[in-house]
Amino acid sequence: MSITPHDERFMAAAIRLSRWHLGRTATNPSVGCLIVRDGVIVGRAVTALGGRPHAETQALAEAGALARGATAYVTLEPCSHHGKTPPCSEALIAYGVARIVISVADPDPRVSGRGIAMLREAGIEVDTGVLEAEGRHSLAAYLTRQTKNRPYVTLKLAVSADGMIGRAGAGQVAITGPEARAQVQALRAETDAILVGIGTAITDDPLLTVRTPGLESQSPIRIVLDPSLALPLTSKLVETAREVPVIVVASEEVWPLSADAEGLPPSALPGISPTGGEIGKRRDPNSPVSDGDGFGLRQDVGQGANPDPISPLVGEMPGRAEGGNAPADATDMDSRRAALEAAGVEVLYCNPYHPEVLLPALATRGISSLLVEGGAKTARLFLEAGLVDRIQLYQAPGVIGERGIESPLLTTDIPSGFVHTGTLMFGEDRLDEYERGL
């Protein structure tokens, strides 16, 4: 059966529905499903909070007997394997659905093509690739973690009219207006984790939570690149670590020698992670990324990007954390580590300035989407590594002036490989968005 405008209309509705639970379905993708009979929606659902039950089983339950002979519109190929729940493909067959329309095939090797094959073998008509570009966009985080073993990375920058993102020594500076800031809160709410450098964490003392009334519970995990554990114990991040998770990414050099076999930090021990799951294979942190290092990141390095690991950032090197005092010796380091952990902060030992190693480490703990929000040096780190997938660049009419901190990126120097996907206005502020293909 050929694809009709009605198919595209219903799939567009399923894709919109799928966005309801972005960032709230754990390691499972947020999938939308509609059951349509005689042109009328008789069942609809999105993957439940926490990832279960899946969208298909919920939509089928809502449709009930009306599902027999109906068409199901699903944004991602229905699963075909037995996990914590039975396969969705089996449920679709059992309910007697006559036709399945799918936007995106699932790259998960447990599913890829098998769900479609199971449905067709049962005599169900299956059409795939309907509004695939839009479907892939809505599933970008899940697809990136599945195919690249890392989270989908969004870089957000707010830039003044004179090209600055802040003022030295001034702490947080409001560059954009309330409408743009509200939009950023919405972005945080649909993202698994948010990341800043230690300089920003100390100078700005941010909360990095979602402050929109009613969405506070959707605050992302907060991550700080903190090689020498310089994050103040009195910071807002530490003080709220038991309410919203905080991870500090410490240098492997500060891992206590007595804590592991041969004194190696967790990221140097295959199969071991302080956060659960395999961080990666042991490798020389000063060697270039190779095709055989276990991460398969060579394809992620964008045109014009530096494929080699990035050196520690000036002003954020161990012992020189911007605006803070790093622990002076091993005893002080152990004391600081213990105090952070006692406050509920998790310490992850993984070179903070090698995102090609850090991102897979985050993926092993189920983080599929990451928002890089500050500051200039951290933004440059991910840009130079070629590991940014989407850029959100806000431009405000105000001027910072003297002692301004120059933005690492302007609309005139977007890296090659990015496509401008749209412009939106929020009050007087302009948002330009750029994306790289999945």
Quick check: average pLDDT?
Answer: 84
Radius of gyration, taken over Cα atoms and rounded to an integer in Å: 23 Å
Number of helices: 12
The neighbouring-strand order within the major sheet is 11-10-9-8-12-6-13-16-15
Oligomer: single chain
As a percent range, the share of helical residues equals 10-25%
Determine the structural class based on helices, strands and strand pairing.
Answer: alpha/beta
Proportion of residues in extended strands? 15-25%
Q: What is the terminal-to-terminal distance?
A: 28 Å
Number of strands: 16
Sheet having the most strands: 9 strands, mixed
Order of helices and strands: HEEHEHEHEHHEEHEHEHEHEHEHEEEE
Question: What is the 3D form?
Answer: globular
Low-confidence segments? 260-324
Care to describe what's here?
- It is a single chain.
- This protein is of the alpha/beta class and 438 residues long.
- It has twelve helices and 16 strands.
- The chain has helices spanning 5-18, 55-63, 88-94, 114-121, 132-138, 140-148, 178-189, 198-204, 236-239, 330-342, 355-364, 376-384, and strands at 32-37, 40-46, 71-76, 99-104, 125-127, 152-159, 164-167, 193-197, 221-225, 246-250, 346-349, 369-374, 390-395, 404-406, 419-426, 429-435.
- Strands 11-10-9-8-12-6-13-16-15 form a nine-stranded mixed sheet, with helices on both faces. It has a five-stranded mixed sheet with strand order 2-1-3-4-5, with helices on both faces.
- β15 (419-426) and β16 (429-435) form a beta hairpin.
- The longest helix is centred in the N-terminal third of the chain and has 14 residues, at 5-18.
- It is globular.
- The relative contact order is 0.14.
